Amino acid sequence: MGCASLLYPPSGSAGISRCGKACYSSSNPKVCIVGSGPAGFYTAQHILKARQNVEVDVYERLPVPFGLVRFGVAPDHPEVKNVINTFTQTAKHSRCSFYGNVNVGKDVSIDELQQAYHAVVLSYGAEGNRSMGVPGEDLAGVYSAKDFVGWYNGLPNCRELSPDLSCETAVILGQGNVALDVARILLSPVDILKKTDITQPALEALAESQVRRVLIVGRRGPMQIACTIKELREMVNLPTTRPEMVAADFEGVTEALKDLPRPRKRLTELMLKTALEKPGEKEQERRIKASRIWGFRFFRSPVEVLANHNRVAGIRLAVNKLEGEGEGAQAVLTGEVEDVTCGLVVSSIGYKSLPIDPSVPFDSRKAIVPNVMGRVQQTAGLYCSGWLKTGPTGVIATTMNNSFDTARSVMEDMDSGSLDVSAAKPGSKSISALLEKRGIKPVTFSDWEKIDNVEMSRGEACGKPREKVLTVEEMLQVVGH
Q1: What is the per-residue pLDDT across 96-145, written as a single tens digit (0 to 9) for each?
Q2: Where in the numbering of this chain does the FAD/NAD(P)-binding domain appear (predicted)?
């Protein structure tokens, strides 16, 4: 059976239901969560665990759950995706229901959700990209890391990206974990990638890739780099590659080591070893055989993406110096610039949240919903968790703690009476009627499990853990919508 075989299960009823769920009481407090990524599921998990009578409904724009765990975590990091097992337990809880394929803000408004639920928690993450703000960033061959990651991870709206990988050099702007993910995927041997859940179109494109050199550019220095040691170690040990560093970038770093906190110290020591120490015989042999190169360029900021016939041909970088010390040091322009020839630019300078509904306060400068401990300011009964609450910072464990804090705020407000749960609210019953009237057919969690089974069956036929369904249309076709 080929990789592209359609393995649809028999179509059946796909209406909203709580099949196999316990009976619901109209008097139970009802909480609605918008977004089914880590923030949404961790918020739901904490509320369900702490309260025996609260009902939680999770709404998601796409037909499939799990947000950045599905569409953001690198294909070669399957251990990070294990958290999906926990989220699945939450979704199958007797007092929890999932409604995919519902675009909150368009199919149903926040005001309508607030009328139906005692509390509404916004957990829809950061779907926007931070702009570089330089000439040429709209040229062909320039991508945001969010879109590039979405392309190889099967995010439906990134399916048509089709990046041109016929160039020799790629430049990644930013030095966080996402930047290193992109570098690693660009340089990894296809024999490694083909055993992951990377999409087939991305795998085929990477198999034909001519990219042999990746520069990972940051505006500050080695002691301010944003990646973690795990990600850096993976780059250092990546088969068929060798590192290429500029020794001058590390001047004074050895002397500063003793004052660094332990995680930062270990990270910096690994960079120093990679950049300055003569490798052992075995490592030297590996580097000599390497066909691909990666390296950090520090103290550089993008000034302009250079063009050739409306395509990227290079990037002009300003040379910076640091003022101040440690992680608070600021990059200051020196007036010097340098040009780097490249055919691919990926901007990994951060995600940002977007407003969802005119009725919800939004801080455009910080790109968050203004809140105190997850309580949305000046809007009773409305809360937020995850990156929408704090900005796009930290790892999944950071989001877990942040979401637990919001869940505690919801429950504290129930206990204090500032969130009135004494009057019954209809919850999903009224929202279901609204959606039906508007021609929207939600996807249930059991529907998602049909999609999941199709993907795993296709993957098995290709020797992969899964082969993702890449369009919303096909996802809905799988579940009989």
Answers
A1: 999 999 999 999 999 999 999 999 999 999 999 999 999 999 999 999 99
A2: 30-188
CATH of domain 30-127+353-443: 3.40.50.720
Please give, one letter per residue, the 3-state secondary structure of the chain.
CCCCCCCCCCCCCCCCCCCCCCCCCCCCCEEEEECCCHHHHHHHHHHHHHCCCCEEEEECCCCCCCHHHHHCCCCCCCCHHHHHHHHHHHHCCCCEEEEECCCECCCECHHHHHHHCCEEEECCCCCEECCCCCCCCCCECEEEHHHHHHHHHCCHHHCCCCCCCCCCEEEEECCCHHHHHHHHHHHCCHHHHCCCCCCHHHHHHHHCCCCCEEEEECCCCHHHCCCCHHHHHHHHCCCCEEECCCHHHHCCHHHHHHHCCHHHHHHHHHHHHHHHCCCCHHHHHHHHHCCEEEEEECCEEEEEEEEECCEEEEEEEEEEEEECCHHHCEEEEEEEEEEEECCEEEECCCEECCCCCCCCCCECCCCECCEECCEECCCCCEEECCHHHHCCCCCHHHHHHHHHHHHHHHHHHHHHCCCCCCCCCCCHHHHHHHHHHCCCCCECHHHHHHHHHHHHHHHHHHCCCCCCCCCHHHHHHHCCC
Per-residue confidence (pLDDT) for residue 340, from 0 to 100: 98
CATH class of the domain whose range is 128-351 = alpha beta
pTM of the model: 0.92
Residue set of the binding site for NADP(+): 175-178, 219-220, 231, 394
pLDDT at residue 24, rounded to an integer: 52
pLDDT in tens, 266-293: 999 999 999 999 989 999 999 999 999 9
pLDDT of 23 over the 60 cut? no
Q: Where are the domains of the chain?
A: 30-127+353-443, 128-351
Binding site for FAD, by residue number, is 39, 60, 68, 104, 387, 394-396
